[in-house]
Known about the structure:
By secondary structure, the protein is α+β, with helices and mostly antiparallel strands. Helix content is 51%, strand content 8%. The chain has 19 helices and 9 strands. The strands form 3 sheets. A 4-stranded mixed β-sheet has the order 1-2-7-4. Helix 7 (144-172) packs parallel to helix 19 and helix 14 (319-350) packs across helix 17. It is globular and about 75 Å long. The N and C termini lie far apart (82 Å).
Amino acid sequence: xxxxxxxxxxxxxxxxxxxxxxxxxxxxxxxxxxxxxxxxxxxxxxxxxxxxxxxxxxxxxxxxxxxxxxxxxxxxxxxxxxxxxxxxxxxxxxxxxxxxxxxxxxxxxxxxxxxxxxxxxxxxxxxxxxxxxxxxxxxxxxxxxxxxxxxxxxxxxxxxxxxxxxxxxxxxxxxxxxxxxxxxxxxxxxxxxxxxxxxxxxxxxxxxxxxxxxxxxxxxxxxxxxxxxxxxxxxxxxxxxxxxxxxxxxxxxxxxxxxxxxxxxxxxxxxxxxxxxxxxxxxxxxxxxxxxxxxxxxxxxxxxxxxxxxxxxxxxxxxxxxxxxxxxxxxxxxxxxxxxxxxxxxxxxxxxxxxxxxxxxxxxxxxxxxxxxxxxxxxxxxxxxxxxxxxxxxxxxxxxxxxxxxxxxxxxxxxxxxxxxxxxxxxxxxxxxxxxxxxxxxxxxxxxxxxxxxxxxxxxxxxxxxxxxxxxxxxxxxxxxxxxxxxxxxxxxxxxxxxxxxxxxxxxxxxxxxxxxxxxxxxxxxxxxxxx
Length: 532
């Protein structure tokens, strides 16, 4: 028995010695290059804490960002075995995401089209020239002129939402809603009409097939999905061997049929509807051209593409590749938009002065419309609405962090003649959430203060650290659409209802220790009282 004990202790000691030596080599790698390394936590321990919700991605990023003094413009950590720099300085950030973009264009190896045809073919994970070609194809579909054509579809959903909520209040009295659940249905209906040309009322018909399929495909909060993502990061080869896909098979098949059937019917019957499927079909035929200087802004947070010279791609995309972009549109609409909307409603509830000022602007615009619908151009002129949305995106950015992978061995000057030898596959992280919550850039960051984005104050905001839709050529292609949807839904909510706190409303709001997008712990609960 004692020999077994000695053997086990020896094996454990040997493994511990090897791990310690490995950690020491990692630390020396950066220290010898003059870059400070964070207090390391083994990768598997980190992933375990994330999966079991002992720690959230926000906790991890804030810890990495705040560990050192402001003098450290870059700090280092290991993402698994990948040497990774965290960019903590606006000028260094611009250097990597703009000036040196050609060397840091792609995201870290994650999931390819062989592992998951839908997710792997989406713009989010495509790499190298294929990403450039897809971005050039999609970019003309998201200009202001195309958004104007689509705005009426969103406004119709806003009116549908208001009608449903009024009916509920009339029959049952003012109701308390969990806003993420409510608004995910509204966001889904927006995607259904704007992307696929389908009219769905998910508030009335809560179990419709389209909504349930979309919800299953966009749910990344479940332990099973999170485990799949973790295993893909640790051993993508193993996942490929066992043919394990991130996206559920049944819903993926349903979604693919939904898009391809619509495309075929439109081709056969020459149907033209200015939605996303139509724009993608036109883009694939080379019939959309990017207009560089439309002079259009959907708000302060709009990503500017005027400086990017996208070369028109001659590549013809397959049916699967087109469906994959619709899939990405679905994911963004379901998760990012509904989460941002729920956070906006929380802040409007919790800050009555903000709500009153917002309502006054909305009511004034509605009075001027004299019963007509709100339009894209009128939405853009609503300054306080834009300020509220901009501040919501500051406190609760859709992406907590973005990563970029080096595509070749290269020596770069990081700052002040300080150089670093990058190897292919080394990575950098842009800590968006940490920048947005840094008091150096946004004083009293926990305070919801739309006045940061007033005409008098917004010029003082560094555009390199306010980046809710990313930065550089690989920014969010759909920022205009997202802002149009956010503003439209908030417009109809606040116009029709007073948003009130209840005993279920958590103040101050706490974030769930989530693996991916931001979510409120216990949800966002609000009472919607119809305005007279």
